[in-house]
Amino acid sequence: MRDPSPNTSRNPVVSLVTVVLASLLLPISLTGASVAIPGVAADFHSSLAADEWIVNGYDLTFAGFMLASGAFADRFGRRKVFVLGTAVFTLCSLVSALAGNIALLDASRVVAGVGAAAVLTSGSATLAQVFDGPARAKAFGVFGTTVGVGMAFGPFIAGALSTNFGWRSVFLVPAIAGAVVLALATRLPESRDPQAGRVDWAGTITFSGALTALIAALIEGSALGWTSGFNVVMYLACAVLFTLFVVVEKRQERPMFDLGLFRQPQFVSLCVGVVALVLAFTPLLVYLPSYLTAVNGQTTMHAGVDMLMLTVPTIFFPLITGYLLRWIPVRHMVTASVGLTAIGTAWLTVVHPGIGNWAALGPYAVIGIGIGVSFGVMDGAAVSSVEPERAGMAAGMFNTMRLAGEATGIAVVGSLLVNFTRVELGSKLDAFGGPYGGKPGELANALNQGQLSGPESTVPVSARAAFHQVATSAYTGGLHTALWIMAGFCAAATVLVAAVGAKSRQAAPAAEAVTQAEPDKVAA
């Protein structure tokens, strides 16, 4: 039901353009930031852990404040929250572009994620308010396609900007575009939900805090040690905050998370499936550009072009999937999406220094197709797995699980890459001496930041070819091991999704038979 508001005038074209432009910036700011990491590391001489917060800090607050932002927009006005979120995102992007040290850059990215959550939730709610019927479906189709385009072309756009204008332009251009969105946002209609309840701040703070503690432990663990004092404190904080979150949500009249949904096997299996998908896909967007830059000596622009083989299928296959659903059941498409991603991730272990585009095209395309299929079916399947009156809650929880999975996946895979590369290097650096002699951990960090030319310059010219061979072989070996683990997790999720889907299909006819039998019992 459309609610009355102080400003009931609607301009569909301006509303659609404003929200779509904003939705284009958000995924570009996520996937594009990863391409800036080599340039940031070279300028600030920052650690890998500090660089990971550029991407992870943004994704973390994006996930943690998603549901709270939606509730805030419903209560206080969607246009107000959209304008506020856009202003925060734009200002933080400008601060990121002008940052003089890694601490300020990381902090601005963390706050930018809060703004992004506000923009996405209030923007989608605004479209639902402005458009009706078939027009609403078309508007959300454009909205979803735009988000996919932003994610697909983010690494390429950022690579082109970074190569030609430096890494700061990766953040400056979104700031300029954000200013344009801010100017357009003043013409959006205002709307709110008169029956909206209070914002679940207790749930938001405990959930975000638990996720932050977990990711901090994962990121810093590779440098400080997994049993260091810092990590032990973070593990305990995560456990305590998550326990408090469960307690808080059980006592809320209108909770942020309806924990009862996790008692439904089909919904849980889909959440596991989407976490497996983003655990395989998002870290590739973050770490593959650094691998290509370090091992192959590519420019960030060239690395961004290569990434298009992985990301472009995600634009087209949601539409193809929608067409195929006429003949193929949703449960089979969901299973296929996770299974294809598992196969592609395992196949990607063919990657090696100097690999040609044709050799890499197969695994890239299979992963991209799997992710594209998931974009076409996963959200609808999650919402359809619960009762209609709980669909909105299921959609919010599912998207939060996706974003939380992205943030956790980036941290997990980053730590795995550093540790596996360090193990591969072993004592091989002892023969070279210099600042990296006997310090495989430091070289592993540099490699995962896309830095190899710098470390190479510290050894004698006559030894550089051998040093290059040792470093690239170790980095490739570490990447292969991480890929096998990612593929294994996706394969396990495929089995779970397929098994639960088959069981739910068998249960459906039985439930229908019981329903049909009830009238006969009453008649008797």
UniProtKB/TrEMBL annotation:
As for membrane topology, the entry says: Multi-pass membrane protein
Concerning CDD domains, the annotation shows: MFS_MMR_MDR_like
Protein keywords:
Antibiotic resistance, Membrane, Transmembrane, Transmembrane helix
Q: Where in the cell is it found?
A: Cell membrane
| Span of domain Major facilitator superfamily (MFS) profile | 15-505
- What Pfam families does the database record attribute to this sequence? MFS_1 (PF07690)
- Keyword Hydrolase on entry: no
Q: Would you say which domain of life the source belongs to?
A: Bacteria
Classify the main location: membrane
Residues crossing the lipid bilayer are: 12-41, 53-74, 81-104, 110-128, 140-161, 167-187, 199-219, 225-247, 267-287, 307-325, 337-355, 361-382, 403-420, 482-502
| PANTHER family, per the entry | EXPORT PROTEIN (PTHR42718:SF49), MAJOR FACILITATOR SUPERFAMILY MULTIDRUG TRANSPORTER MFSC (PTHR42718)
Q: Mind telling me what this protein is named?
A: MFS transporter
